[in-house]
Design a protein that fits this description.
With 164 residues, this protein is an alpha+beta fold. Helices cover 23% and strands 15% of the residues. The strands form three sheets. The protein has a two-stranded antiparallel ribbon with strand order 1-2.
């Protein structure tokens, strides 16, 4: 029983919510599970959690490795409950922060790779290159959209978004 509770808590801490999401506990109280955010997402980035997710069931989540958030900003505008707050500029979104595992990252292991750097939608400000080779996440610029995680060539990805 305790392990189930810990597992559920750990899962909630790792959920990547759509742009503009209020803090997790408040989100769970405010989200009315209307699925308007899912319906309006032109990229099908927003998925719905199922019964195995406990009290998070029916809430929106982004699984960046499958389909990241492309920051179209349509979802906050249709949220009737305030679980998703409007964000005027995509650079101000804070879904999470990308972290790089240098032990598995191709660039840090002698193989030229710039996938996360080249595909970052924050105009090469959130992921920069040290010595024009090694990707580095600039945490205060990272919006947590997950595009970097989605395009990472390693499996599991060497760069992943941690909700925050």
């Amino acid at each position: 029983m305790i392990f189930k509770l810990l597992e559920s808590w750990a899962q909630k801490k790792s959920l990547l919510r759509p742009p503009g999401a209020v803090p997790e506990q408040e989100f769970l109280k405010k989200c009315i599970r209307c699925l308007k955010c899912v319906e309006v997402c032109p990229y099908n980035s927003i998925k719905v959690l199922h019964a195995e997710s406990g009290d998070s069931m029916g809430t929106p989540v982004i699984r960046a490795r499958e389909v990241p958030c492309y920051l179209c900003m349509e979802c906050p505008a249709v949220c009737p409950s305030g679980a998703l707050q409007p964000v005027k500029e995509k650079e101000k979104v804070r879904m999470g922060v990308a972290k790089i595992d240098e032990s598995t990252c191709l660039a840090y292991n002698g193989i030229l790779c710039r996938a996360c750097y080249e595909r970052c939608p924050i105009y090469r400000e959130a992921v920069i290159l040290d010595q024009e080779i090694y990707p580095v996440v600039v945490e205060d610029k990272c919006v947590g959209c997950g595009v970097c995680e989605n395009v990472c060539l390693t499996n599991p990805p060497s760069i992943s978004v941690k909700p925050g």
